[in-house]
Fold:
Amino acid sequence: MSDATIEVAGLRKRYGSTTALDGMTFDAVPGRVTGFVGPNGAGKSTTMRIILGLHSADAGQARIGGRPYRSLRYPLRSLGALLDASALHPARSGRNHLLWLAQSQGLGRRRVDEVIELVGLAAAGRRAAGGYSLGMRQRLGIAAALLGDPPAIMLDEPFNGMDPEGIVWLRGFLRALAGERRAVLVSSHLMSELQGMADHVVVVGRGRVIADSSVADLIAAASGDRVLVRTGAPREAAAALVAAGAEVTPASQNRLGVRAMAAERIAEVLAAGGVPFSELAPHRATLEEAYFDLTGDAVEYRAAPTEVTP
Amino acid sequence: MTWPRLLQAEWTKFRSVRGWAGGIAVAALLMLLFPVVGLAGGGGDKQASAATLGPDGEPVSDSYFFVHRVLAGDGQITVEVKGLASERGTPWAKAGLIISAGPEPGARYAAVLVTAGHGVRMQHDYRYDRASSDAAARWLRLTRRADTIIGEASADGQSWSRIDTVRLPGLATTVRAGLFVTCPDRVQGIGTASDTATAEFGTPRVMGDWSPAAWAGGQVGAYGARGGFTPSANGFTVSGAGDLAPATRGDVPVAAAAGDLLLGTFLALIVVVVVATLTITTEYRYGLIRGTLSARPRRGRVLAAKATVLAGVTFAAGLGATVVALPLWLRLIRGLGIFVFPAPPGVLLRAEVGTAAVLAAVAVFALALGTVLRRSATAVTAVVATTVLPYLLALVPFLPPPMAQWLTRFTPVAGLAVQQTLIRYPQVDSVYTPADGYYPLAPWAGFAVLCGYTALALAVALIVLRRRDA
Structure:
């Protein structure tokens, strides 16, 4: 297996008057899990369909290991994909679903046995797929993506409908795939699903990339070196800290957010001014908070504006 | 090569949906068992064996008014036909000279004759017909030498041109020969009306071994009440009805054509059409088409593989059913005493292979329409409307023949012509309808029409499939 990067360069796509993709550009490189995040309608599924050659782009291109998908002779050996776990004929058994896919790639029954074992579906393999739970369908879809032992894997919303046990299994599984130097691209509309699993995130909104960075950098940027101070005398505390050169914003009734000053120095200043305080906590943003910071104005389909406390 | 693997994958897809493989098996079974239904209705009636058979074993019409003398050796007879008319103007009303091998029904004969609307001809042994180059000739001559008969025509009784020379094997030395008049029913729409023709003959001149007895008149075969002859000053006035020709389906009411035994094709077609359409529309319905096209991005090949698998499966199942059903049922219904129009083995084989090929071509047609329309209900409706419906209409016996012929000429069901096992003789006017087992196009021409529709639908499907986002 040689390395294969999923390259997406300048994709544009319109459906009638709707712009689905507006210059989508990113890479998913070998050896890491790349999270592909954005609200519904941001263009994630469209991008994936274009990568697979299912939809044609108006401009730009997508390549797998340097080659357009449609030029691959046995494409599932280069890129394994799961777009829609429910895309099954309900009367066909899971095993036969994998078998025709395998045969189309010049692979045999032995490989079908291997992947069905790998995802833990061996017992249900001979039953009609129409009777599978959504979680079982996700596993079957992942088995299909792995059939060709591809260097690149792409999953669209794989956690949907999975039970907690399945989610834990899949996270570990995808990390292991990245550990084998595969490029793993996982889309989600929930950043929290990617926490602790993705190395890198591509955040998209309105058909283009908003942020493309490592998870560590993203969280650091969102955290912004803020320290939360819990105090019974917020007004006095704020006055003392501002006088000492810090930036202060009220966080809630008896909490203050403090920037531009380390926690130790805050403690000194408050103690010196005789202001009581009960807690000093360096703030660390979650990936989800970072995501909301980024996508606040990129969400197209949100029910109603909700109050966000900083 | 990647093509066999693609075929293998599409075959796995097909066989792994039980309803599809089962559906095709049911279609084959319907073809195998369906004649039972037809037999349940008409099996008890055994009058069918009354069909008159000609020298080749085929059913014939053998009735005419005969004014004859005995010819005990070689000889010649010449006559002028001064006039021929019938009450309803049937074009195939006939008057002329005939040599008959014997009085039994279906006996060999040779005749030279004037027709009301088809010129001057020489006909023999019911099936054989040759036109004279001189359609306006009114003088006729028959010459017998042993079992060889020569027919000639002349416009003036002076210069003669030969129409044909025929052999009547086993012709006895002593035969009856003379004048004859006959007139088939006039074909009107989907029915026929009986007609009687009357001809004015001049005095016949004979040479050779004729008996000296006077001319005697008599009806051969049925229609006796309407014939007769009266000698006149310079000849005879003879009238008659009936025909001397191969029988058509309508002439032998209780009889079967081998093609009838493939009537189960209609039910099989419904099943095949539904299965074939669903093989592609369910891919769209469940989104599986994306899996298919991402596994094999060359879409034309995917369509070709699907078509190959469907055509192969339906052809194999169809052929398996027809090669068993046709001989089996022919044997069974003959055993029940039902007369079956004879058909040579090559014709039966063509009907068997052709029927399987029609099913296969319709399956591919359905696949193509399914690819274009995507939705199961829409696609099945469209395919049924363009194949099953015209088939059904074409088989309705009381549909006006022009409409039935239009359907079997210009719609995909033209392919059913491969099932024609009856011979359509140009010298016989009849109600030739698909319901009776006669199709307007030659077997492979009809199949070519069906293939044309299939190719067209496939081409559209290919363009659409390639251009459309999946």
Q: What stands out?
A: The radius of gyration of chain A is 24 Å. The domain at 225-282 of chain A is CATH 3.30.70.100 (Alpha-Beta Plaits). Chain A touches chain B at residues 49, 52-56, 69-70, 72-76, 81, 83-84, 86-93, 96-97, 99-101, 103-106, 144 (CB under 8 Å). Chain A has two domains: 6-220, 225-282.
